[in-house]
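User: Fold both of these, please.

Assistant: Here is the first one.
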Amino acid sequence: MAETKANGAEPAPATSTARRVLEPGTRVAVTGASGFIGTAITRALVARHLDIAALLEPGARHTSLDGLPVTRFEADVRDATAVKQAIDGCRVVFHVAAVYRFWSPDPTAFYRVNVDGTRNVLAAAAAAGCELVVYTSSVGTLGLEHVAERGPADETCAPHVDHLFGLYKQSKYVAEHEVLRATALGMPVTLVLPTTPLGPGDHTPTPTGRLVVDYLNGRMPGWFDTALNIVDVDDVAAGHLLAAQRGEIGRSYIVGGENLELREILAQLARCTGLPGPRFRVPRPAALGAAWVSELVEGKLLHRMPHVPLEGARMASTRMVFSDARARRELGYRSRPAVEAIERSARWFAENGYVSEKRLAAIHWAAPTA
């Protein structure tokens, strides 16, 4: 990361920026507008009565935007011409589009979308004279090597590159530096780093949502010794809008919620669904062994998504806990209790066909306890 601590002190913002107002009618663009986070951001912008250009991946599912007053553009971020046409006339761009998964039948997609696509969006925003780009990065670009000794990671924690497990993290790390390079050359960009979002509308589902789906379908009898920072996807969207209005140029903001042990997350799912909780801890060697077999058989031989992706197993041995104090202090960011995000996610998956009939019949909903 470009920001570093000096004698343990939090660095001051490099650039003083007046608070911006997203006035009704302002023309804004959202890339990846029908994705999990993209949809939440688009809905939040619609509530502000903005003029929204929604950039959509050609051929993908876009039903999450049905009924919303947006102008749709089928524009693959890898297509520089299509991106430029869609962004033309926009004052603000929310660049959310990315390949977010732990495996892909086409490994080159991670770099072509996450890196080359980001370059295309930045170039289009510059050509359009945009006043601001809000870039959705990832806490996956931060260093977690010293969490056990120093506590939750923040925006100043640089990673050891050999700990950037998998193509998703690696490509987002490179993309983030392309964003910072553009900022150094004068492009007005603010960066938002979501933690682990849950909530309604995770159609794919993302790796985060897959954890909930697997639990609901009885495929997670045990837990890994890890921790996650859980945040509601609508709070992530609110964080993006706050960054657009109050964020400093070239500055990164973690938007998160609560740090919870994976065992606690599964226990909350058990409380709100009435389904059995996890029964045992899965040792790290067993998880890695299962992942290697899954990657070989399902990924390489059968060419389908591994049930236990290797990148996910590697991450399961890392405590992914973060501090979003900067966003709360500088942006006025707030988040709801993690248990609400967990329940909202579980209910949405149960109501939208992601849970087997047998398991669905066994669910007895109850309000989660803090």
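And the second sequence with its predicted structure:
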Amino acid sequence: MGSATLYQLAKRGDNVLGIDKYDPPHTMGSSHGDSRITRQAIGEGVEYTPLALRSYEIIRELEDKTAHRLLLACGGLMISNKQSQGVHHVQNFFDTTVAAATEHHIKHEILDAIDIKRRFPAFKVAAHEYAYYEPEAGILYPEKCISTQIDVAKSMGAAVHTGEEVLSYKETIDGVIVKTTIGEYAAKQLIITAGPWLPELLNKQSGLSKLSDYFKIVRQVMYWFDIKEHYQNFKPGHFPIFIWEGYGDLASSYGFPAIDGPDGGLKMASPKFNEIVTPDTIDRKVSQAAIDEIYDAQVSKCFDGVGRTCLRTAVCMYTDTHDSRFVMGKLPGSNHTIIASPCSGHGFKHSPAIGECLAQLALDGASKLDISGFGVASIFLTC
């Protein structure tokens, strides 16, 4: 979110400074691991779809501007069933996806179990399962997206300070003063896109502890399993990104085609919301027991041709809300401070458009896309 906002502010010709504790792209937050799902019809709510569609446009503009490949449209399969448990705390994910596609004229197909097995033989779907298929869904390369937006922003005059931690901020009559480990900076507007560091930062500010309680940080693990002997069934063009709604004792999962060749493996994960952490306490190691558990409980039940060997793992964090909705806008009672922690595990695909919305909110007072449903003030009525 920070790199996207930095780019959009620089694009407008604003005098902008981006500050990061680390040196993005890095592996300490929520935006690493080589790939992120992108899709146009959003099952978490039809109000998200305009953000997704605008993000596609911005990514394609960046690709044209830089000649970097940032998005691979390899198709997306959303598998569901009548006993679905939902994903991202959202019920009716499948029906909402179809409704969003219909409302916004997004090309798609509805497949039954026989269709799925015929077109994508690696999926071990049950007879009662069905799917939404979107040909323009696919993969964003997060590290490349982040570095590209930072580089383009810098070429347009943006200043970027890395290895510098924000300690606190305070509002003045005319703006805001930000204190870091290096010094202090004065600005007319502050946009905080701190991800899992947001609750700690808000807790330091008078009157905002209740707001920070609305967020929780949960540990997530991504796995890459061996598919070398059956690579043809898992490579892009033969295997789409997928979101698989669970049922019974089968948990929901998501994953990607083998974008790194026969030796790169199948990347997949199962969202978990019960392991609460902080950026300082998170365990970044993955045990063999955890690998065996997900293979036996999900991988072997869902796919043909995936070996038990786990080639690598990666640990990241979701900054989550109780309903997994986005949160962005001016802080209550503030004229100069905007927060954006809209991830909840499904934010990266929207980040280009969110960056544009935040830039418009800071410079113009309002965004062109309607983000009123994600306002900060409503948190105090729901948490």
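The first helix runs from residue 2 to 11.
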